[in-house]
Haem-binding uptake Tiki superfamily ChaN domain-containing protein (Corallococcus interemptor), 465 residues
Amino acid sequence: MRSMVKMGWLALLLAVGCAGRQDLETPDYEAIYDVPLEEMWPSVREYFKEANLPYREDRGSLVLETEWKQEFGGSKVAGYWHRYMVIGKRETPTKSKLWITRITKSVNKALSQPGKELDWGISRVIGKEGDSPLSAEDAEDRLAFPVGENAFYMESGQGTRDLTMEWRVFRGIMPKLAKKEPVKTEQPVAKAEATFTECGQSILGMKKLAKAGGVLMLGELHGTQEVPRFIAQSVCQLVTVGMPVTVGLELPVENEERITTFLQSQGGEVDWLKLMEAPFWRSPYPDGRGSEAVANMLEQLRQLRAQGLDVAVFVYDHPKLSGQAREDALTQTVLKQVKAKPQRFHLVVSGNIHPRTKKGLPWDKQYKPMGYLLKDQLDDVTALDMAYDSGTAWICAANQQSSKLDCGVKETKGKDNGDRFFMHTWSSANSEGYHGVFYVGHVTASEPAVFKGLGNPDTVSTPSL
């Protein structure tokens, strides 16, 4: 890796930005502090304290580990937690750097590696035969210990080196470390951090596509846990750097006011009931758009709004129409939203027919998808198709015997491209009019939200993780 020797005051002021904002641009090389490690470390402690990331420290070795922090500001339905292991390292006697490992843990074991599920019992022994049995608490400590320099896996969790966090800390504390240098501007240096918002591991490639005034269309496979989380993480990582984001969801337009009201609410039980009492959530043919993961995503976006972050949501489906008439109506609804707020970044999610930017479908050569119609009226339109590893999804498919829709958990076939979420564009659009793909890893089915009791007036329980 190349090294960053020193950052001047002008570059620092541009990089740090406003208090509490994360920087989306992450160099692909290490951040090097032009101060000795012992001189830099007190500022590291102060950074994590001000960011409201409690930690415990091994003072003898300049290593600290933060407590677990839930995604999206502590959403009760997020189901993912992150902590950071921070290691101070000497580059030279007068220069230093940090290695920061992000450790992710999931309550639903989505990250658990095959064969890692532990069978607890009175005769269960961890390790080789003859070893002493370990208690659950002992085993947790053992599994939480990293293996290797850059990555490790544990029960329901994984860890990777996080350059984004390393640079965020660097940009937060360098103004204080460089305070002895003359300031050549009357503009005050911004405070290093406000309360930290956990947005998950950075989505690779997103920063190239997220632009003020741009429209990014995602063509998804309905009914997975991963796509709604991908959307919520994308929004979180953008709004925390100051980019206003509007999310367009392929839900019936009749739900617009209900969803807006929920996003502006406190997210209590009554608020959930009002959101979920719409007929849409109780469709006799639930196709995945009314899944528990979608309901959870709305809660996660509500949490971001509650922190004062600039998130908006609109819905644009016209289910009473069909064919080209429906496609035209989808287009007009999205177009109205984009033109009303041209300074915002619009993230529009739908099934993977609507975002295509080329005319025609295999069964209708004259069909004009929403993406095809939008690209002629807007300057910046990008369409990404969904890529994923094999797994399951909640899918409605035609039953040839009954001539009715059969909805349920079904296997999906994909290609393994690793564990990291990413966006990737090609040099030109493919035959379907897609400019690239967004990848969500292994997919897991998400059942209809009402199956979990959400919105049922007779159910007292709140949405579960």
